[in-house]
Amino acid sequence: MKQPLAYRMRPVHIDEVIGQSHLVGENKIIRRMVDAKMLSSMILYGPPGIGKTSIASAIAGSTHSAFRQLNAATDTKKDLQIVVEEAKFSGQVILLLDEVHRLDKPKQDFLLPHLESGQVILIGATTENPYISISPAIRSRTQIFELKPLTTDDVVLALKRAIGDEKRGLGKEKITIDEDALLHFARSTMGDVRGSLNALELAALSTKPDPDGTIRITLNIAEECVQKKALVHDKNGDAHYDVISAFQKSIRGSDVDASMHYLARLLEAGELLIACRRLIVCAYEDIGLGNPQAVARTVLAVQAAEKLGLPEARIPLANAVVDLALSPKSNSAYLALDSALADVRAGKSGEIPDNLRDSHYSGANKLGRGIGYQYPHDFPDHWVKQQYLPDSLNNRRYYEPAATGKYEQALANQLQRRFNKDS
After folding, report:
1. Do both 190 and 305 map to the same domain?
2. Could you name the domain of life of the organism this protein comes from (predicted)?
3. Which candidate among 66, 218, 345, 397 keeps its CA 20 to 30 Å from the CA of 264?
4. What is the domain range of residue 272?
């Protein structure tokens, strides 16, 4: 029986791993282990389909080590014994243990001494937080690495490799794929390379070739094979960016129903990561100091959504959308920074006042550094009148409080009190 495309396209060398550059990139820790041939047991955790098995396979291939794969939930202690016996015979075996968080105590107790001896290099794979779900005994003998969700570009690269690879992929077939179909495969599976490759293979095998033998994969075919409608129906992707734009503008405009509608369109198209990123941008750009607690809650909601994945991710995101859409709005903080940036870029910097300059070195007093600086905590209300801006910008105002939200009104009152004292 022919193995699935996703299985055939697993990396056989560390250079073939897609994404995870923080672990396998040049001079990063897993790359260093492979280059030095100094492997240690590790736990890889993250959402399904983003490369846990691929990294284990690539490590084995790059180091020419024996590689075995078991499942902590379904395979038995006897299966582990077979791997250990092989390790004793060959010197070392890399064991990929799926669902490592479900490793029971008898299996764990059996494995521990072999991990300590280095005969078995355990690569545990889990979608659960290992700091919560994995026993301290295993954690103390492994390094824990979090895998990051793959980007659309990462998945597109994996698909293109599969289409062009004549040995392991679909390269022997005469395949053309429309750009919007390729993007739909990549986007609709939410960074799951395995799911994208499975859908691509189904499309290639189930599409009737043209008279010249060409298998042409269109967006409609991609939608059928993924069973999700595309958010984008034009090659340039305008509709895709229109939905993202409408999503943020609806939140900014306090239309909670429209905001929910566009969130639904993003999630139905598999754009969980884009929805999450856009919500954080909205929180800081459009709500900001109008309701800082809603901003903090949004960050927590996004973190929960990324951990949960769809479909459950929709629950914290729905809460965040209602919270942001109906919150007081303020963009005063980032407008203040943009105004300051404009001055700096225009060359309006000026000399830092001497009393603010660093005075923690020998000879600073002779240069007048730090002399005359007044420590605000030594004064009532922890404030004292003194100049902080350069002379050329003295009395320049960047921050103008918005007139919405109790929190920013409190900031405005504080600013006004300081201004009155300063006058």
Report:
1. no
2. Bacteria
3. 218
4. 238-325
C-alpha distance from residue 223 to each of 188, 191, 232, 265 (Å):
9, 16, 11, 15
Cα of 71 vs its chain's centroid, Å: 26
Residue 23's CB is within 10 A of a number of other CB atoms, namely 21
Q: Of 175, 202, 226, which residue sits at a domain end?
A: 226
Q: Which amino acid is at 397?
A: R
pLDDT at 6 over 60: yes
How far is the C-alpha of 359 from the C-alpha of 165, rounded, in Å?
Answer: 63
Position 232 confidence tier, pLDDT thresholds 50, 70, 90: very low
251 φ, ψ (degrees, to nearest 5): -65, -45
DSSP 64-98: T-EEEEEETTTS-HHHHHHHHHHHHHHS-EEEEEE
Residue 333 buriedness (CB in 10 A; 0-12 / 13-18 / 19+): buried
Distance, in Å, from the CA atom of 249 to the CA atom of 168, rounded to the nearest integer, reads 46
Instruction: Indicate if the alpha-carbon torsion angle 238, 243, 249, 252 is positive or negative.
Output: negative
Residues in the chain: 423
- Whether residues 341 and 362 share a domain: the answer is yes
d(CA 155, CA 195): 10
Query: Which H or E run contains 411?
Result: helix 406-422
Over residues 134-177, the pLDDT tens digits come to 888 899 999 999 998 888 899 999 999 999 999 999 999 999 99
Residues 6+ apart with CB under 8 A from 379: none
**Shared domain check, 74 and 101:** yes
Question: CB 172: neighbour CB atoms within 10 A?
Answer: 9
Strands (E), 158-263: 175-177, 215-217
- Least confident among 101-110, 203-212, 380-389: 380-389
Which residues, in sequence order, are bridge partners of residue 123? 42, 96
Structure-token pair, residue 214: 């060409």
State phi, psi for 394 to the nearest 5 degrees. -55, 135
Question: What local confidence, expressed as pLDDT, does residue 236 receive?
Answer: 40
